[in-house]
Design brief:
seven-stranded mixed sheet, 25% strand, single chain, globular
Length: 620
C-alpha cells in the first residue's frame, strides 16, 4: 500500500473498485508473473461481464512464474516435505522438483499428450500428485484433479465429461491404518471413457497391476526421460485446469481456470491473504482435489517460493496429537485447518499447546464452511494462544480461491469472514437487489475478477442460469451473508440450504451454529422435511461432547428457542454418535434427509462412516 500511497485497507478496496484494471495490473507486477509476451489489454468485457477475459493476448505459463522461477533463484530450497500416515517421510527441493516435473512432462509427451489434452489425476496427497499437476501445466495440457476418495461412479462421470486422455492413479493408500484399494473403482470407472493410458504411481502396494498397452508403470515411464523439458508458451486465456464442484441437481459442474488470470489471482491469494513469504513453511491439510489445495498447496505457494508440508492420512491417526506434532516438528509458520477438523479436536478436548511448541505459527487460515463461535474460540485459544489471528476465509471453486478474508490488524470477532478482499466488488442484497445490512441477504459480485471461471465445461446455458440469471449483469453466488454494524461479514449458509417454516426462512448454518453453541454439544447438522402445516419442518441431528451422555431433545429445543426464537423449534431432534461425513470432513446432510424419509441412499463409497446412518430410524 505504501508503494501506491494508500493508507488503509478501506482506501485500497475503494481504489480497486474505482479502477479495477489499475489494481490487477499492480498485483501482477508486484507478485512477478512471468510474461513471454506482454498482454495488450488487462480486461476485455466486450462480450459482457459473464464472459470477461483478462490479460488478453499475453503469453505465459503458470509453471514459469512458480517452479521454473524458483528453481533458478533458490534451487536448494525445500519446496515440499511429504509425510504419509505410516510415518514415511521425504522432501524435494525446487531444483529436484523442476527435474522430476520435466521427466514426467517428457513422459506424457511420449504418450502423445499435447497442448489442450486433459490429464486426469486420481491420487492421494503424495509427491506424484504434485508432479502430475505441474507436468500437465508445463506442456500445456489441462489437468483435472479428482479427489481420491470419490467413488467409481463419480470418477467415471468426470472422466467422461472432460474427455480425459490420461489417468494417473496410485497402487493404493492407507486411511486410519487400513489399506484402501482403488483398483476396482478405477477399472469400473474407465469403462466407456476415452482414456487411452492409465499411469500407475507406486505408493503403498495395496493393488497389483500388470503392465499392458493401457497400463503404464510410472517408474518405467520416467526412467528413460530427459530431466529438461521446454515449457510451453501459452495464451493468457488458455485453460490450466478443470475442477469439478457439486451442483444442487444433476451432474457436477466443471469449473475452468486459465493460465493468465489464475496465475495473478493465486499469487495474490497466497502472498496477500495469508501472508506467504519465501521463508514460510505452510501446513494446510487441504486435498488437491479442492480449490483450497490447488491455490495454497500448489500454485499460490510455488509462486511465492515458499515450502509446504504435504500429509497423506487421517488428521487424528494414530492419535489426536498427529498434526500438532507435525506442526512442531516441521516448524510450520502458517497452519490451515477446516472448520470440520476444528470441531473434531474441540470435541475431544485436545489441548495442543500443553504438549507441543507452536510458537512459529504466525497466522491460522481456515475455510470450507461456516465456523461456529465455539469452534472459533477453541482455535483462537487452544492453538493460537489468544494471540495468533484466525484468518477466516470464504470463496469457492468458481471464484478461484477466497473473496472474503480477515486481514492483519482488523478488529476480530468470532466466526467473521472479515471483509471483501480488494479487487472483488461484493455486496449483500435483498430480493430487489437493495443493500442488506443487519439481516441476512444474498451475496453478489458486481465486477469481474481474473480467476472467475470461464463458463462451465460443455454447458454455457447452465453457467448463465446458475450465476447470472437472478440479477442482470451481476454474479449471484448462492450464499446467505450477514453484515454487522462494524461492516464485518458472516456466512449464513447456502441459499439452497434454507428451511422455510411457515414463511420464515432460516439457513441450516444458523441453526447448526446455535446447536453447537450448547456447552454439551460438539457437532450438529440440520435438514428440512415436508410438513403438512408449516410447509417444511426442521430436524436437528447432534453429537454430544461425551458420547455416553444422553441429552434430552427438550434441552436442545429450549436452547434453540432461546437463541433464535420459537419459530426455529425443530420437529425432531436426534442424537447420534457421529455425523456421516466424506473423507474430507464434509457433512452429508443429503443422506440424513434421505434416511429419515426412507429414500434410496445411493452410492456411499465416499462416506467415511456410513454405519452411522444405521442409528437413524425412518420417520413413521
Amino acid at each position: 500500500m505504501k508503494k501506491h500511497n494508500v493508507s488503509s485497507l478501506e482506501e485500497l478496496s475503494q481504489k480497486a473498485k474505482d479502477d479495477l484494471e489499475w489494481f490487477w495490473k499492480s498485483i501482477d507486477s508486484d507478485i512477478g508473473v512471468v510474461w513471454d509476451k506482454p498482454y495488450e489489454k488487462i480486461l476485455d468485457a466486450s462480450r459482457g461481464i459473464a464472459w470477461a477475459k483478462w490479460f488478453t493476448h499475453g503469453k505465459t505459463n503458470i509453471y514459469k512464474s512458480s517452479v521454473e522461477k524458483f528453481a533458478k533463484l533458490s534451487p536448494e530450497k525445500i519446496a515440499y516435505y511429504f509425510e504419509s500416515e505410516d510415518g514415511a517421510i521425504s522432501q524435494i527441493s525446487y531444483s529436484e522438483l523442476d527435474s522430476k516435473v520435466s521427466k514426467l512432462a517428457n513422459g506424457l509427451k511420449s504418450l502423445g499428450v499435447k497442448k489442450g489434452d486433459v490429464v486426469a489425476i486420481y491420487l492421494p496427497m503424495i509427491e506424484g500428485a504434485i508432479l502430475s499437476i505441474l507436468a500437465a501445466a508445463k506442456i500445456g495440457a489441462i489437468q483435472t484433479v479428482i479427489f481420491s476418495g470419490y467413488s467409481s461412479e463419480s470418477l467415471h462421470v468426470r472422466l467422461l465429461d472432460c474427455n480425459a486422455k490420461i489417468l494417473l492413479i496410485s497402487d493404493g493408500f492407507h486411511r486410519k491404518g487400513k489399506p484402501v484399494s482403488q483398483k476396482q473403482s478405477v477399472e469400473t470407472a474407465l469403462k466407456d471413457t476415452h482414456v487411452e493410458k492409465t499411469i500407475v504411481i507406486p505408493y503403498k502396494g495395496v493393488d497389483e497391476y500388470s503392465e499392458s498397452d493401457k497400463i503404464i508403470f510410472y517408474d518405467k515411464l520416467v526412467s528413460s526421460q530427459d530431466d529438461i523439458c521446454k515449457t510451453e508458451i501459452l495464451d493468457s486465456e488458455d485453460l490450466l485446469f478443470i475442477l469439478y464442484t457439486s451442483g444442487t441437481t444433476g451432474n457436477p459442474k466443471g469449473v475452468v481456470h486459465t493460465h493468465g488470470g489464475f496465475s495473478v489471482f493465486a499469487g495474490y491469494q497466497s502472498a496477500y491473504l495469508i501472508d506467504t513469504q519465501a521463508q514460510d513453511i505452510l501446513f494446510w491439510p487441504a486435498d488437491i482435489g479442492w480449490i483450497t489445495g490447488l491455490v495454497w498447496n500448489v500454485y499460490g505457494l510455488l509462486m511465492t517460493g515458499a515450502s509446504s508440508v504435504i500429509y497423506d492420512g487421517a488428521l487424528d491417526f494414530p492419535t489426536q496429537n498427529r498434526i500438532w506434532g507435525m506442526l512442531s516438528d516441521y516448524n510450520a509458520t502458517i497452519f490451515g485447518i477446516s472448520p470440520t477438523a476444528v470441531r473434531l479436536f474441540k470435541k475431544n478436548n485436545v489441548e495442543p499447546l500443553k504438549l507441543f511448541n507452536l510458537d512459529k505459527i504466525k497466522n491460522i487460515p481456515t475455510t470450507g464452511e461456516p465456523l461456529d463461535e465455539d469452534s472459533w474460540r477453541w482455535l483462537y485459544e487452544k492453538v493460537g494462544n489468544k494471540k495468533i489471528p484466525i484468518m477466516n476465509l470464504s470463496g469457492g471453486t468458481e471464484i478461484g480461491g477466497a473473496m472474503l478474508s480477515v486481514f492483519p490488524g482488523m478488529k476480530l470477532k468470532p466466526s467473521t469472514v472479515g471483509v471483501p478482499i480488494p479487487g472483488m466488488n461484493l455486496d449483500v442484497v435483498d430480493d430487489d437487489q437493495n443493500p442488506a445490512r443487519g439481516h441476512n441477504g444474498y451475496l453478489i459480485i458486481k465486477s469481474p475478477w481474473p480467476a472467475m471461471t470461464r463458463g462451465l465445461l460443455n454447458d454455457d446455458k447452465r453457467y448463465l442460469e446458475t450465476y447470472w440469471s437472478r440479477f442482470e449483469n451481476v454474479w449471484f453466488h448462492g450464499d446467505y451473508v450477514y453484515v454487522d454494524k462494524d461492516n464485518l461479514w458472516y456466512m449464513r449458509g447456502r441459499t439452497d440450504d434454507v428451511i422455510n417454516v411457515s414463511g420464515h426462512r432460516m439457513s441450516t448454518a444458523e441453526i447448526e451454529q446455535t446447536v453447537i453453541s450448547h456447552k454439551k454439544i460438539s457437532d450438529a447438522a440440520s435438514v428440512s422435511i415436508p410438513d403438512d402445516i408449516t410447509g417444511e419442518a426442521i430436524v436437528v441431528f447432534f453429537v454430544a461432547d461425551d458420547k455416553f451422555e444422553k441429552i434430552t431433545p427438550l434441552e436442545i429445543s429450549d436452547h434453540i428457542s432461546e437463541k433464535i426464537g420459537k419459530l426455529a423449534k425443530p420437529k425432531h431432534i436426534i442424537q447420534l454418535s457421529d455425523l456421516p461425513k466424506t473423507r474430507t470432513g464434509k457433512i452429508m446432510r443429503r443422506l440424513l434427509r434421505s434416511k429419515l424419509l426412507g429414500r434410496d441412499l445411493g452410492d456411499l463409497s465416499s462416506v467415511e462412516n456410513p454405519s452411522i446412518l444405521d442409528e437413524i430410524q425412518k420417520l413413521g
